[in-house]
Amino acid sequence: PRVRQLARDFATEARRRRLTISEDASGQPLGEFDHESTDCRAGGYDGPAVPATVEGRPATVTVHRGSALYCTFTNAPVIHPSIEVVKDGDERAYPGGPVSFRFAVTNTGDTSLSDVTVTDDRCAPVTGPIEGDDNERLAPFETWTFACSSRIPLEHGVADENPIRDVVTVTARDRLGGLVTSTDDHAVRVLHPAIAIEKTGPASATVGVPLGYILTVTNPGDVPFAAQDVAVTDPRCEAPPAGPSTGGDPTPRSLDPGDAWTYTCTVQTATLPVGPLVNTAAVSARDPNGRDARA
Fold it and tell me: CA angle 113-90-120, nearest 5°?
């Protein structure tokens, strides 16, 4: 608290809840203060105390004709504590994959803060500050950086919460013990690249008669595949499967989630022995981030 002695008209000084002191003895600005207490004494600072009360903050005192009062006002600085946290990190991830976050904590008020604590409802432990701290007090306009890493659950599926949104909370205390807090959230989109193939054809055939197959490729995931990144193979076919036939697909250059494309191929039977013919088709694809899917 600041102490200021006044020997002037008490009524004009003490009946305001908030006192603005323009400068101290050295001429430095002191800013704005709240009136905290008043001590008035008659006949000098060492004279007898004169009763003064503070009710609702304005101070009142009885002044008798011809008396001289010397009043000391004690004023508490008016502070405006404030804090802000901004969360940043990975925007995409895969089931079982890592995700990393950074939290920028800034003192947006006009007084130093201590006991700065950062927690995340889906990531622990939060470490730091890893940047900006040199005296364990967060000064006005200073920024500290914290960090946290975790993993997406391996069993996360297409139907699960997506994106995964988590919230960071920062708390701190000002020099008067008051609590300030701030929150921010961040969303991570979990990608599930997946592809499937179904092969259909005749159940039987005569040796020497070509067998025709239809290969239906679908995207049961949530990530599109560019047409040039989809490859269909069948080792028994006389040539690479022809296609794709995209039908009425409005985006024929991309195998989007839910799309179904068809390919065709032929197996020659003239040189095959009589008996069961087993052949397996395969499909592979690569998503825009380079992650492969196979079936």
Answer: 40
